[in-house]
């Protein structure tokens, strides 16, 4: 057992409905959480919080809590972004996780324990709209932290089922999104095994030549195959697929590239989500300007394809994929920074 899936309990001692000798016996045999410590930073006035979690073998992973207050009480949204692997083997050059390389697969318990981290005080206690037991429609989990979830599909799927379980967190599959760099067999498994879970595909380029460089897994499953898999998902599940596109200044943000993207996205149940690059220290690239993002979005819109621009939360705490981890690499968390116990 790698986690006590009681949403708000912070330790076995909180499970006061269990007799003390039983709690002690459980504590002797099992770890309460697979996360042994977490270092947490806040940004956006406390609306964004990011944690680097240390696991039993010293591997570190990241998760992020993002809160979007609503106009009225109960109308806000909360999104928790979690990791599926320690590191990532896909090696996208603009991504801090990709630059750091692959560590190991996460277990289903390690994936679920990231979500549970944010269910403990003070995080979800700080005025979030979502409370265990109510208002769940505003609560979302996204696999957009470290790692390629469909390169760890068995454990990611097991974690999704644990998150769905009404006896645990009871988070509906429709509130969970798996983001993939384009692992085609994994997308087909999602169609068969998790058809209610949302699919996001990280496209980032409209030609194979450029995508081979930006998302190297493209050499195995090129754009046509990835888009065809997205179309199969949409046709079988009748659910809209999100095509993610990181905008990198002077690399993939020209008008003809916007038109190429609109062509790939048009005519089926998809929508384009633009993300200005959050620059990483290991890369020479920078994000497209706000005006450039608007122009790119307008081209897509004129082609009749639904398009959104993702807000960039938590820039000052290195909230993009793998960035805080990279900043802390090689530094012992407890010595350099206060360790907040999970
Ligand atoms: N491996 C999966 C999921 C994790 S990455 C995938 O690639 O889809 C989640 C998203 O963050 C992906 O769309 C990825 O391309 C994007 N991302 C990675 N590094 C980024 C950066 N520096 N700035 C903006 N987005 C980034
Ligand atoms: Fe891996 Fe996704 Fe980063 Fe690419 S963007 S290296 S697939 S985590």
Structure commentary:
The chain is of the alpha/beta class. 30% of the residues lie in helices and 20% in strands. It is built from 11 helices and 12 strands. It has a 10-stranded mixed sheet with strand order 1-2-3-4-7-8-9-10-11-12. Strands 5-6 form a two-stranded antiparallel sheet. α3 (108-117) crosses α4. The structure holds S-adenosyl-L-homocysteine (SAH) and iron/sulfur cluster. S-adenosyl-L-homocysteine (SAH) binds at residues 88, 94-95, 144, 148, 179-181, 202, 244, 246, 275, 277-278, 280, 320-321. Iron/sulfur cluster (SF4) is lined by residues 88, 90-92, 95, 97-98, 146-148, 181, 321.
Task: Fill in the keyword field for this structure.
342 residues, alpha/beta, 10-stranded mixed sheet, two-stranded antiparallel sheet, disordered C terminus, binds S-adenosyl-L-homocysteine, binds iron/sulfur cluster
